[in-house]
Amino acid sequence: MFYVPDVPIRNQLATEEVLSDPENVFFLQGQILGNDCNPITGAEVEIWYAGTPDSAGNYYLQDYRGRQRVDECGSYKFTQSFPVQFVGSPHVHVRVSKNNTELIVTKVYFEESLAVYFVPDPSIVSQVTNEADGSRSAVFNIYLDMSGTETLGCGKFS
């Protein structure tokens, strides 16, 4: 999956039909923080992943791409379906920018879905939590080597 600029601003990356079953729902959330652990306000998070292939076998589906600006605590949250097995282990691509400057592009993998032969850097692996309603969630915080803002007393995801 390759980066495509100017994707829609949205936090829901799957169709209503897919998300109508709570067992299909996957929340990816986290914070964008500076090395001082303060939020990077004004940052924008974009994510994309291979969705279910279309009838021609193409994995590029606009429904599985989105972006949003973090809140005053540096937090973001996307609602999507869990990524499918695609070239190795299921993963989500993440790009963080601020003021039209790219700060980082990375991927997040999910511990319980890692292929046996694949051992990524632990900093890009997240644990998935099974929620009571059947949905799943994962937290992926990104720490950037830059100052954030003044401490706002924002709660951090654990």
Task: Summarize the topology.
Blueprint: H1 16-19, E1 25-34, E2 43-48, E3 65-69, E4 75-81, E5 91-98, E6 101-110, E7 125-126, E8 128-130, E9 136-139, E10 142-144
Parallel strand pairs: 1-9, 1-10, 6-7
Antiparallel strand pairs: 1-4, 2-3, 2-5, 5-6, 8-9
Provide a descriptive summary of the structure in words.
- The protein is an all-beta fold and 158 residues long.
- The chain has a single domain, classed as Aromatic compound dioxygenase (Protocatechuate 3,4-Dioxygenase, subunit A), CATH 2.60.130.
- 3% of the residues lie in helices and 37% in strands.
- It has 1 helix and 10 strands, in the order H-E-E-E-E-E-E-E-E-E-E.
- Strand 5 and strand 6 (101-110) form a beta hairpin.
- The chain is globular and about 35 Å long.
- The model has no long low-confidence stretch (mean pLDDT 84).
- Count of discrete structural domains: 1
Name the helicity range. Answer: under 10%
**Biggest sheet layout:** 5 strands, mixed
Parts with pLDDT < 50 across at least 5 consecutive residues:
none
Query: If you average the pLDDT, what whole number results?
Result: 84
